[in-house]
């Protein structure tokens, strides 16, 4: 186990703590919103990216990345507003049920762990795909826990690579 693995364990513990604090319903709404926003952003970023490229003359890779981020953030904000309303309605109905609070917190830990898995997997995929120094890449790929997150994600790997690598290459070319 190296420092990357230790860092991952600490992050997962933080996500579990947040899950206990926020509760199951909040964490599930967060998870669903994140996944749906991520998938929709992946489906439609190229359309907005093309528009940004044509109108603002930003390189295509960066245009696609910007459009992905804009769509993702817009959907996250939109979902947060909707889910807050739904959460309040559900919570008000169930808050007086015996043991609801205990169950809400316990299940929240699991939902928080699920959120942590998703976030860490995506971050590690991006770090493995994006062109960074080989020494840093090796450090991440040598981590045992990190390898668990990255393996069996080839479908995501290809999609993330298609989005992030051109943007990283264009940004690097601009810097030079």
Automatic annotation (TrEMBL):
Q: Which residues cross the membrane?
A: 6-24, 31-53, 65-87, 107-132
* Keyword annotations of the record: Membrane, Transmembrane, Transmembrane helix
What is an annotated GO biological process for this record, any one? toxin biosynthetic process
| Main localization category | membrane
What subcellular compartments does it reside in?
Answer: Membrane
Q: Is Protein transport set as a keyword in this record?
A: no
Q: Which Pfam families match?
A: Colicin_V
Topology class, membrane: Multi-pass membrane protein
Please give an example of a GO cellular component term from this record.
membrane
Q: Which PANTHER family match?
A: COLICIN V PRODUCTION PROTEIN
* Record-given protein name: CvpA family protein
